[in-house]
Amino acid sequence: MIKNEAKIKNILIVKIRELLEHRALWLYLLCDEAEKKGLKWEDFAPDAIKRCGLYQGGELVKKGKTNSLKGLKKTLFSKAAQMVFEMDVKKSTDDELNIDFHYCPLVKAWQKQGCSDSEIARLCDIAMCGDHGIGEEYGAKLDLPKCIAKGDDICALRYHKN
């Protein structure tokens, strides 16, 4: 059973979360329609989402003018993002970035659609392909030892340089 309840209830943060939920809804509906046409989610969605992450990561590297993981924290995991996902930054160096997420609006969107826990885990794996792509653009690998979508209490994102 996935537990995913927000503690921060600020109206602006709630509205931002709703935008992220809408993005997650798109992913679910695209996968659902593709499956109705005989395509397996994993046969197309991970590659598309990783392409998005590679693009976003490249833009973030340009914006921050660095491929330091401190730069990734500053550009992607800003204070606003930290509030939206209820993040705790555990470590931030040039070569390592460890962040714990205590809430996920994407998981909330999939829960609202009535997705099963196994569907949510699959959708999360696909969505995380974007985060892997972002890491790749920073010359880093992403490990996810804990994941809300798989029943853990947090998502533990662990970026580290190769």
Q: Keywords, please?
A:
162 residues, alpha+beta, 4-stranded antiparallel β-sheet, 6 helices, globular
Description:
By secondary structure, this protein is an alpha+beta fold. The protein contains six helices and four strands; from the N terminus they run ααααββααββ. It has helices at 11-36, 45-64, 69-75, 79-84, 105-112, 117-137; strands at 87-92, 96-101, 140-146, 155-161. The model has no long low-confidence stretch (mean pLDDT 97).
Topology:
Elements: H1 11-36, H2 45-64, H3 69-75, H4 79-84, E1 87-92, E2 96-101, H5 105-112, H6 117-137, E3 140-146, E4 155-161
Antiparallel strand pairs: 1-2, 2-4, 3-4
Helix pairs in contact: 1-5, 2-3, 2-6, 5-6
Short note summarizing the structure:
The protein is an alpha+beta fold and 162 residues long.
Give the overall silhouette.
Answer: globular
> Helical region count?
6
SSE succession: HHHHEEHHEE
Radius of gyration computed on alpha carbons: 15 Å
